[in-house]
Amino acid sequence: MTNHSTRIMIIGGPDAGKTHFGGQLYGRLNTKKDRYKIVSPPENLTIFKEVLDSLNEGKSAGHTSVSTHNNLDLEIERTAGEKFVFSFPDYGGEQIRSMVGDRRIDKEWKKQVDESTGWLLMVRLDKILPVEDVVSRGLPEQEVLKTRQAETEPMKLSATAFYIELLQILLFAKKMPTRHQVEFPKLSFVISCWDLLDQDEQGMMPRNVLRKRLPGLWSFISSNWREGYWEVIGLSSTEKSLSLTEPDMDYVKKGPESFGYLITSKGEKESDLTQIIATFLEH
Fold this sequence. Notes:
Layout: E1 3-6, E2 8-12, H1 18-31, E3 36-38, H2 46-56, E4 69-78, E5 83-91, H3 94-102, H4 107-115, E6 118-123, H5 142-150, H6 159-173, E7 186-192, H7 199-202, H8 206-213, H9 215-224, E8 230-236, H10 249-254, E9 261-263, E10 269-270, H11 278-281
Parallel strand pairs: 1-5, 2-6, 6-7, 7-8
Antiparallel strand pairs: 3-4, 4-5, 8-9, 9-10
Helix pairs in contact: 1-2, 6-9, 8-9
C-alpha cells in the first residue's frame, strides 16, 4: 500500500477563512462519509477543538492568535485505499502580512516552505475594494480633489502587488526559479467566502472571477505556473455567516457537516470539502 507524504502549506492573511476551513475539513474527514477520511485520529486536536465546538453550537469561531504557529499531521486514506499524510498548519494570519511588509521569512516559515509540496492560497475577494480609475469613478469635483490632495496617507500595496510579492518571496525561499514555468509546488488559489461575492460572480467560473477582480495577479500566476499545476476554486466553508454570540439553530440541528461547499475549477458545486485535497494528490 502506498504511503505518500503530502505537505500542503495553507497560506492566508487575517480573516481569510483558514480557521473555519480547517475545522470543517477535519469534521468531514472524521465523519468518513466523503471521498477522503482520517485513518487514525491525532492525539492533539487543539488546532480544531475550539472551531468544532463553536460550529457545533452554531456560532462562528474566533481567530487564531497572532503568535500561534502549530502543525498537525493527518494520515488520510482515499476510498481506493491509498494513504497520504496531510499536514495542516495553524498560525495567525498577521504573520503573512508581516512577511510581505518585512520582506523576510523566519525559521519556522522557512521550514514550512522547504517541506511543502503544494500551496493553498486563500484570499477573500469580497474584502478587496476595486481599484478606482477614470472609468469606475470618473473625474472628481474640484472640492473632492482638494480634500484628497490634503490627505497624507501612508503608501499601501494594492492587493495585486501584495499577493504577487508574497508569491515571489515564497518562490525565492523555496529556491524555485521562474525562468521555466513552475510545476512544484502546485498552487491552488482559493477564493474563500464564495457566498459573499456578488450574485453575478457566484455564477462565474472561479478562474474568471480572479481574472476580473485581480487581473494582474491572474496574469502573474498563469505566466509563472505551468497549466495543469495551478487552479482557482471557490470555497464557502460555513455556507453562511455565523455570529460569535448568537447560535444558528439550523446549524445546531443539522450539524456543521451539513453546511459548506466548494466550486471546482470547472465551475461545479461540490459539498464534499475533502475534494479540495484532490488538487494535490490526483494530478
